[in-house]
Amino acid sequence: MSTPLSQAEQFKALVQWLGEAIRPPEQFTLGYDAEASEFIRFNKGKVRQAGLVQQASLSLKLINDGRHADVSLTLAGELDVDCQRLADALQQLRDTLPMLPADPYLLLNPQPWHSDNVQGRPLPDTARVLEEIRSACEGVDLVGFYASGPISYGYASSEGAFGWHQANSFNFDWSLFHSNGQAVKASYAGADWDSERFARRMQLAREQLSFLDRPLHALAPGEYRAYLAPAALEEVMSMLCWGGFSAQALASKSSPLQKLYAGDAQLSPLVSFDEQVSQSLSPAFSGEGYPRQDLSLVKHGKANQQLVGSRSAAEYGLQVNGAPWGEAPSALAMAAGTLEQADILKQLGTGLYISNLWYLNYSDQPAARLTGMTRFATFWVENGEIKAPVNTMRFDDSVYSLLGSQLEALTVERELLLSSSTYDQRQTASNLLPGALVKKLTLTL
Length: 445
Hints:
This protein is of the alpha+beta class. It contains ten helices and 20 strands.
């Protein structure tokens, strides 16, 4: 019996078959996505559902005389079957192309390149993880979701480019519920399970849960000192990443960071943002077939580089730097500060400790002004001590205030927050963020 092919070997075999099936002047690009994921759902601290998902798919683009069309297909994992599926897809695209106009902004990478990166650090033993979770949440109502396993990406083109990427990761996202219906939300993610780090994360959540016993503290609308935990800051960053660093959005004047990149506004000198591909779980190549590199998006409060995909490069005369589709960061890292974790409450003094935000949207996009709600474990702090939970409140404030004129400090410790999305498949996108202490946050109701 022959040895089964690995995913990388299967992809190479499909690329070879496609290369032989192409009829010049046809060109192709071929993308590969796969996962082998273990999912475990918890309720009341116990495993309620467990399952495995193994899937792989191809995305084929056929190009001829400036015309191009795409098709996606699910793979069976059997080479003969998958070659036939690829042959059918190729014929479908050949039939489609004559009906399409030429694309003036199609910019294929003519350079052959090779990238092979397997982040194969062993994943934590599931039985051990379950035992640590069970032990850590004893006596409390935990609801959560654990996902673990390798995610693989491949890319190849008729021009000789070939990329392969595999990253092992886990993501545990959970909430601790109080009997009064309030909750503390937390997460722990990465490639290496550190038992002590997980225990500290769970202990912090349990300590915060104990404060939910106290009567709610009513706050009037106004301006308050506030600490935004990394998970709360991630919600702010997710809004900024929605076009903020995009070359297309900046060129069309629709970026929320338009003023920053125009030099009409700036953030605090404490703020630096990098697209840090080299130290992340994300592949070192884009789905458009360009190698990716580390980028400095904001340096000491001032705009620096932007994310440029192939279509933006063709339309606006820019240099492609491997930005993924949508030109949003997929490996965003914010520089750490000097505020120690143990000093957060003391440095905050009197004000709000905000663990999470949600329902964010722009109240004034050109001014990078956001509105949203506090969520999960927002506390009133007096003289460096948590006094009481706070009712859900709406904030409305500008990023140029929160991360600019009113930013006082960033924490030394940063938290890796992996995307918990499982739409189509698990993701490798991540944010590495500190917590932020601000002198003024505006609550509106």
